[in-house]
Amino acid sequence: MNLQAPSTISTPLYRLFPSPNFNYSLKFCRRTTSSELHSPVAGDSSPSVRTHRVTVHDRQRGLVHQFFVPEDQYILHTAESQNISLPFACRHGCCTSCAVRIKSGQIRQPEALGISAELKSKACKIHLGYALLCVGFPSSDIEVETQDEDEVYWLQFGRYFARGPVERDDYALELAMGDE
């Protein structure tokens, strides 16, 4: 009896054909690029997995990226597989390097530890909250804007630091030193 593990063939879900044309968007008053994607190749994706258009306004680079992401894949990972460079650091949802402000649409992010629940749901007239692209799944077509990491930290922790220096807790220090 000959038992062999089945071989797997890794095929990209989408083929990316970068567009050499640049346009100037009056809305953003800066250079934008657009990546043109073709429909999934037959057999590349399960017919039951929905795909959504993701638009990322990269503030730091002055670019706008548009690409498609299946609902069951991380946005950052899919962007990278299509040669789209977006900010990131840990890839585990623990920092805020890949944090974005959601302008429209919904992102499911159950593993996003780097952003508080309050900040995830912080809605106002101009945005719907914040998300981490490294552990974010699109639930609809979305439009997001990259954020400066310091801005996100201030939004989460600024109220604590704005009160002044944190007081030293000698009792907690004694307990911690006793464990060593």
UniProtKB/TrEMBL annotation:
It comes from the Eukaryota. InterPro entries: 2Fe-2S_ferredoxin-like_sf (IPR036010), 2Fe-2S_ferredoxin-type (IPR001041), Beta-grasp_dom_sf (IPR012675). CDD domains: fer2. Residues 52-150 form the 2Fe-2S ferredoxin-type domain. One of its GO terms (cellular component) is chloroplast. It is found in: Plastid, Chloroplast. Belongs to the 2Fe2S plant-type ferredoxin family. This is 2Fe-2S ferredoxin-type domain-containing protein. It comes from Camellia sinensis var. sinensis.
